[in-house]
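Q: What does the assembly look like in three dimensions?
Context provided by user:
Components: two
Sequences:
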Amino acid sequence: MRTTSAILLAGLRQLSRSRLVTIPVVLVLLYPGLVVLILSGTHTAGKGMADAADAAMGVMFMTIPMAATLATGFIMILGSSLLPEEISAGRAGFWVAQPVSRDSYLAGMTLASFAVCCIVSAILFFGTSAAILAFIPYRPTAVVWAFLCPLLWTAANLALVTAVSLYLPRIASIIICLALAGFSNFMGSVSQVVGALPGGSVASTMQTVYWVSFFVFPADPLLRLAMSGLGPADSSIQMMMSSIGFMTSPPAWQIVYALIWSAAVFLLAGARFRRMDLA
Amino acid sequence: MTSPALHVEGLSKRYGRIEALRPMSIDIPHGAVFALLGSNGAGKSTFMKAVLTLVRPDSGTVLIDGVDSRDPSSRRSVRYLPEIIRFPGMLTPLALHAMLSDVRGCGTPGELRERCGQLSCEELLERPFSKMSRGQVQRSAIAMAFAGDPGILFLDEPSNGLDPEARISLRTMIRDAASRGATIVLNSHLLGEVEAVCRMAAFMRKGAIVASGEFSSLVKHTGRARIETVEPGRMSEFLVAAGSEVFVCDGGVEASVAESAFPALVSAVASSGIPFTSVELRSESLEDLFMRLAGAGAE
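A: Here is the predicted structure of the complete assembly.
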């Protein structure tokens, strides 16, 4: 435990000085600022034209998916770089030659990168929501989920890329993980649309594809729950979207599965790391 | 009987079809400065990495101070200087040493400062690694490896990138550490450096230890005796007349002689009346030993 926390601190110190982290963190800080800039213009123009909750819902619908995309990109790049870079630079071996077990090293470094990814996700999700709230006060639907889900979603993405990067080269890892994340998100939306339409062979096929993509990489429900939690409670747009499946909370078992999946994939990464030659 | 500093039994490692380490066993006693010698690809670095669990051996047992090397606590007093490492560019040696001290549960900035002083690189303590030359990074890494009171040091090509002055300091640090009871396992291609600090070695070839022990027990008689004399011409004539094959080299005279016939040769030279200062049986140099045991033409 002591060595894990020492490695966690070492990892945080190392990451806080790394350009791979400092530059993206500065850039993502600009995103809520950009939202503020846009809202400060459009809000004045549209004053009184829409209900506050609906206006907030509209802005969220445009800005949060973009925030999620930026966060996904950052997580994939950091997650695919950290351990492979540590191994190829000889630093992983250097640490493991100290009185540090591989499990402690992996846990410390993964927690450090998870902490950094959570900061980036928090800036993007909460910073954007706060910017919207500042201009269009609204009542979030579920505050607990609004806080928890972006972090759980970050964990799922990081678990995927950490594990894949220990098996494949960096660029291949980024491409595969981004493709999986994008496909999972796309199929999540498609599944909601076809779920609201009359049944048919295409709808049935789409649902099957969705379930396959869900079981392979179940981050989408976490993102939907995050958006649903962050969204205004009394927006008529949300009610309309819910009627065709959008902005509804996914079933609890999907969230539980996503959590178990994330833990299992981290364990898989650990098993791979334990067997690897660090030289 | 105390356990050796390092006990290796049946250690092997294979990369696909390549047998990087053939099953090998060796004991390195406490306080020894032990060299690993062999050509490129002989398995020296892999041996170090397998001992330190950086590479996963296929078989074998490694005990460090009697503790299984798979137990992280066995590496509490171990220091490892890798042949190649890229430290995080934005960190300074002092910051990295602080992290290492946290992990080991001991260590002070003062001990690193002291070692940097020995290597004349105190000014590097607070300089980021990204702003150091290759040699400066190596000096810092050596200082970190020797900081504190290491029990066993694994040094993989420690002289890489060092200037002559730093190499001399490194030799002094190795001797000082050994005199304090530390065990040093040194992997180096610089035989002069090895000869200056080591008395024991393992010679490796194609992933196997072909010979190990004290240099004195490994060297062979070359079949020649060297006679230092101010009259090499007369001495040569005398030895030829006595039936020896004679070679004049470096101002002295060398005569072929069997080890058993050496006392008789000494008596003959002494009774010849030709002035001489010494007669010695020539043994292999470390270079000769290396070529015989680990060189490309080794049997």
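Follow-up: Chain B has two domains: 6-215, 221-283.
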